[in-house]
Amino acid sequence: MFCKQCGKEIPNAAVICVHCGVGTDNFRMSPRGIGGGTIFCGYLLAFIMPLFGIISGIYLLLQKCYLHGIIVILLSIVFWIAWIALFLR
Ligand SMILES: [Zn+2]
Question: N or C: less crowded end of the chain, CB within 10 Å?
């Protein structure tokens, strides 16, 4: 893609322009871009459907929301084991 500020070509994954330092479209995808709703859904999925909880946890990690991402994944694994233990009892 091209920088909106200086017009020079920059990598598509770039968060800021390497030439002038202005934020790109990816900049808004940074941790602050994740709403409380997304994080809440992650926790909810971890509890109800652990498989999707892990996926949403990975999604949070990819969005650089490391703290909640790791917690959601760990919760998903714990609840997954809990659900299996409940059904196999
Ligand atoms: Zn630029």
Answer: C
- Gap from CA of 49 to ligand 1 centroid (Å): 43
| Cα(48)–Cα(78) distance, integer angstroms | 12
Q: Tokens for 54, please give them.
A: 């892990």
For the chain, percent helix, then strand, then coil, each to nearest 5? 65, 5, 35
C-alpha–C-alpha distance, residues 84 and 18, integer Å: 49
CA 41-23-60 angle, to 5 degrees, is 20
CB within 5 A of ion ligand 1: which residues?
3, 5-6, 17, 19-20
- pTM of the predicted model, to two decimals? 0.58
pLDDT tens per residue, range 34-87: 677 788 888 999 999 999 999 999 998 998 888 999 999 999 999 999 999 998
